[in-house]
Every structure is written in C-alpha cells, then in structure tokens.
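Sequence, please.
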C-alpha cells in the first residue's frame, strides 16, 4: 500500500497531462500502480465512491488549501466562468493566453489542488487554451457564478471568502493580475530644452470592466500596503517604485 499523499500526487500529475511513465518516475512507484490509480480500477470500493462524492469543503467540511483557493479565486474573477452541464455537474473553465505557458501550468495545478478528486483537462484554441475541470461542487466554491457576464451583474464575496483573502491577500492579488493584469515597462517622453528625453519605469496594470472586481483588487492592494490609482475608469495602476517593489514580493511578471 502506498501513502495517500503519493496516490493524490500521482493523480494530480496525471490530471496535468503527464504520461503514466513520467508520473511513475516522479512519484517513485511502478507504472502499473499509476495506471491503476488513474483508471480507478484499484479504488472502486464503496468508501472510495463516497469520498469522491463528498469532496466539497463547503458541503462536507473537507480541508481546503486556502492559498491555492485564493489564487484560483483571482483567476476565476478575471478570466474564468462556470457552466452547468448535465446531471448537476459544473464545469469550471479558465481562459489562458498561450503567450504565458507558466500561467497555464499554474492554473491547471491550482485547479487540481483545490478539487483533487476531479481531473483537469485542456482545450487549445487559436491564441489561448481553456483549462477546465468538472465537479458537482464548483458552484459551492464560487458562488459568484451566474448567467451573463460578470461586469453585468453584482459580484460580492461571501464572508468565508473574505476571510481567506484577508489571510492570503498576496495570492489573491497574484491571481487577479495573472488573469487580467500584467507587469510591464512604461516609457515616457519628456520635452526639455528643445530636445526629447525618454525614461522608463516598471508598473502593474489591472483592467476589468466590473466595478466590483476593480474594488476587490483595490481593497486587496490596500491590505498589502501597495499604493495604487485608477489610470482609467476600468484600470488600476501601480507605478510608484516602492509600490511596484512591494507587489513584486507577491506577484511578479507573467511567464
């Protein structure tokens, strides 16, 4: 018998798209063990079936990785959506630009950590990849879901979600900026004494059409002690050197 942690790690790696042989090497187990775990042929007992259907932190009090959830919540509010599929099963989808392969991996891994009993898959489109997972309980973890676009409806957090963000504001900010923001260099021209001078400085931008989500981003930056302002009605800018350095501790560039 292998430890529960080994089995769960193998299933997460399989959900991320690694082949069975790679998973076996990383986990230090046999190829046959990985194949059995992945195909569920080894764990089809009644107790395992109950475990899979009682996997919700909200409904069944399962332990939740709070840091991973804070990050995933930020990704969801930026580029995510939830669809109701057949048999009361929900699909959580995150749209990730193919320009950022590191973000793709982080999104898939975090989704697997938050809901370890559900597999994660990917669907490639021109310029982007949809990272998705199916579970009856995604709607429990993201009660902000609903018909229509997020900026066309009210977005408010439950008290338990606020408590998680207050405990892990850096992870939530990272998710928001990784989804709808970026860290780049701003180049400014100044005309002085008959000539143009250019200077550059790093800054963060977060753009979203939802006033509620912009407000949540601003509140989180306040928790982190990061100075910010609205550069546009739909955009938050962090440009002061000290503020950028502070936010770098939690976010950093996409990759």
């Amino acid at each position: 018998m292998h430890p529960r942690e080994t089995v769960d790690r193998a299933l997460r790696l399989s959900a991320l798209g690694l082949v069975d042989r790679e998973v076996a090497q990383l986990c230090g187990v046999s190829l046959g063990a990985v194949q059995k775990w992945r195909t569920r042929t080894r764990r089809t007992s009644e107790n395992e079936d109950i475990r899979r259907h009682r996997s919700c932190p909200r409904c069944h009090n399962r332990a939740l990785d709070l840091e991973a959830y804070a990050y995933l919540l930020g990704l969801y509010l930026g580029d995510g959506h939830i669809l109701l599929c057949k048999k009361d099963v929900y699909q959580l989808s995150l749209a990730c630009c193919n320009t950022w392969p590191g973000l793709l991996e982080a999104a898939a891994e975090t989704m697997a950590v938050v809901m370890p009993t559900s597999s994660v898959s990917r669907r490639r489109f021109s310029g982007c990849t949809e990272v998705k997972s199916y579970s009856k309980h995604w709607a429990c973890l993201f009660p902000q879901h609903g018909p229509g676009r997020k900026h066309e409806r009210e977005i408010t957090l439950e008290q338990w979600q606020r408590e998680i963000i207050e405990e892990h504001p850096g992870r939530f900010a990272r998710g928001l900026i990784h989804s709808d923001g970026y860290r780049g260099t701003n180049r400014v021209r100044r005309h002085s004494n008959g000539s143009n001078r250019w200077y550059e400085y790093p800054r963060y931008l977060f753009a979203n059409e939802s006033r509620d989500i912009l407000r949540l981003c601003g509140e989180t930056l306040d928790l982190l002690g990061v100075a910010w302002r609205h550069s546009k009605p739909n955009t938050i800018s962090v440009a002061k050197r000290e503020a950028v350095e502070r936010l770098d501790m939690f976010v950093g560039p996409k990759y």
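The CA atoms of residues 40 and 98 lie 32 Å apart.
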